[in-house]
Design goal:
The complex is a heterodimer of chains A (168) and B (290).
Chain A (H helix, E strand, L loop, with lengths): L1 E9 L5 H10 L12 E10 L2 E10 L10 H4 L4 E7 L3 H18 L4 E6 L11 H8 L5 E3 L8 H17 L1
Parallel strand pairs in A: 1-3, 1-4, 4-5, 5-6
Antiparallel strand pairs in A: 2-3
Chain B lengths: L5 H15 L2 E5 L5 E6 L15 H4 L13 E10 L2 E10 L2 E8 L1 H83 L3 E5 L5 E4 L1 H7 L3 H5 L5 H4 L16 E6 L5 E11 L2 E11 L4 H6 L1
The chains are: A alpha/beta (168), B alpha+beta (290).
């Protein structure tokens, strides 16, 4: 059985825990519970004919790149950068966390998730900022842990990228 | 620690056992479990077997083993619901030691504080959003007020212009009426007001004199168009005749009289007409009888 470690990175209250719970347990709760430290969940997915166990490391929110513990990243095959579309500053924090992650892990696959797509009327990230990020060849997926929109797609896309690298 | 006397060391050990629930695992370079012990069950880690792959059994260790060199510290790892451990990995003598120390109390304290801090921060962000929304709405409102004030002031200016024009027209009308009144009162010509039914309701003295009626006759309604219009001229009341033309009338004494006569609609009551009459030199017989 192939096992892959994925880290959830992002500022506080962007929805990292909610995305994992939606993906693993198909559950969502509106109440915000801050994460302290790290919680590890497991989910088995099939990519093509390969069964893969994903170990999802839900890290506590990091406000600066220095808040992100390198030891948590150790052994990760990929990561999901999560930003809250209704809080522009969380996008900038995600960008700086990516630098830290790449410095620690090297060029492993990652995706940028713009979460809370159910609140687009409060959206703060505009098309110009999005285009600037896409120019870096980053894949962006809009997600909503609340509705489930894009969640499965996000984890599946990252797993596919990791498996491409794994199969090599 | 080397300088510490035995009782202190023993006390620290018992304190560590009591507060930190130490547990350990010893892992080979191949990831196989060599030894384990301590309070592993308090972290809900159980069913251990010699040589089992630790990374498969303890999810948070997957990808970390084998440890090449040095040490790794994983603070506050959730090992079970509401159970947290500080996890230390270090190499000694070609094997990897994994030490777990209970961090649950620390996490709970930090969680409460962090939750409050982040809740406040999120509320501040919400308030900032609301403030921005209100500011935008206020700006839009101010812009609308500005536009409407501008429209209103243009309307006021236009109304003032219309009012001034209206006053000028009123003054011109008053002057015209005054001129007409003086013409009416001067008795230079006979002037008569009548409606479409032939009722005569106003006349100057000259018109009355030309037809031999008194002002009292007029008040009593004796003077009507049917009375004064000759057969040849009947219908003259309803037909507009805007240029002076000779027209025959019947005086009160039943004699006929020819007058230059024209009518025009009354501006303020278009159904009514004003008649203007000027006497013509009369044949001898008429003059004699008048």
């Amino acid at each position: 059985m192939i096992q892959k470690k994925i880290c959830m990175l992002g500022s506080f209250a962007v929805g990292k825990t909610s995305l994992v719970r939606r993906f693993v347990e198909s559950i969502y709760t509106d109440k915000y519970h801050t994460t302290v430290g790290v919680k590890v969940d497991k989910k088995i997915v099939n990519v093509g004919e390969q069964e893969t166990t994903l170990l999802l490391w839900d890290l506590e929110g990091a406000e600066t790149e220095h808040d992100l513990r390198k030891s948590y990243l150790r052994g990760a095959a990929g990561y999901l950068l999560v930003a809250d579309g209704t809080r522009k500053d969380t996008l900038y924090r995600a960008l700086s966390l990516q630098l830290r992650a790449e410095e620690t892990l090297g060029p492993v696959p990652f995706l940028l998730l713009l979460n809370k797509s159910d609140l687009t009327d409060m959206w703060e990230i505009d098309a110009r900022e999005r285009a600037a990020i896409e120019q870096k060849n980053w894949k962006i997926i809009d997600t909503s842990a609340k509705t489930g929109h894009g969640v499965e797609d996000a984890f599946r896309s990252l797993t596919e990228k990791m498996m491409e690298k794994h199969n090599g | 620690m080397a300088d510490l006397p035995g009782p202190i060391r023993e006390f620290i050990d018992s304190l560590t056992d009591e507060l930190l629930a130490p547990a350990f695992m010893l892992v080979s370079d191949e990831g196989g479990l060599i030894d384990w012990g301590g309070a592993l069950s308090s972290y809900e880690i159980g069913s251990m077997k010699e040589n089992m792959q630790v990374g498969d059994h303890v999810p948070f260790l997957m990808g970390l083993l084998p440890l090449d060199s040095g040490s790794v510290f994983l603070p506050k790892v959730q090992t079970a619901p509401q159970v947290f451990a500080d996890v230390y990995l270090f190499r000694r003598h070609e094997v990897t030691w994994i030490l777990l120390l209970d961090a649950t109390d620390d996490v709970k304290k930090r969680q409460a504080l962090q939750q409050r801090t982040y809740d406040i921060s999120l509320r501040a962000t919400e308030l900032e959003h609301e403030g921005r929304t209100l500011y935008d709405a206020n700006s839009r409102l101010a812009e609308r007020v500005k536009e409407q004030t501008s429209e209103l002031s243009q309307t006021v200016v236009r109304l003032q212009q219309e009012l001034a024009e209206s006053r000028q027209m009123e003054q011109a009308l008053n002057a015209s009426e005054a001129r007409f009144r003086s013409l009416f009162d001067s008795n230079v010509m006979g002037i008569v007001y009548f409606d479409s039914f032939g009722n005569i309701f106003e006349s100057n003295d000259t018109f009355l004199q030309l037809l031999g009626y008194s002002r009292d006759d007029l008040r009593r309604g004796l003077l009507t168009w049917n009375q004064i219009a000759s057969i040849a001229s009947e219908g003259g009341s309803s037909n507009p005749q805007e240029t002076l033309k000779p027209q025959e009338f019947t005086r009160k004494d039943q004699h006929r009289i020819s007058l230059l006569f024209a009518t025009t609609p009354q501006i303020e009551a278009p159904g009514n007409r004003i008649g203007f009459a000027i006497s013509l030199p009369q044949p001898k017989s008429t003059q004699a009888s008048s």
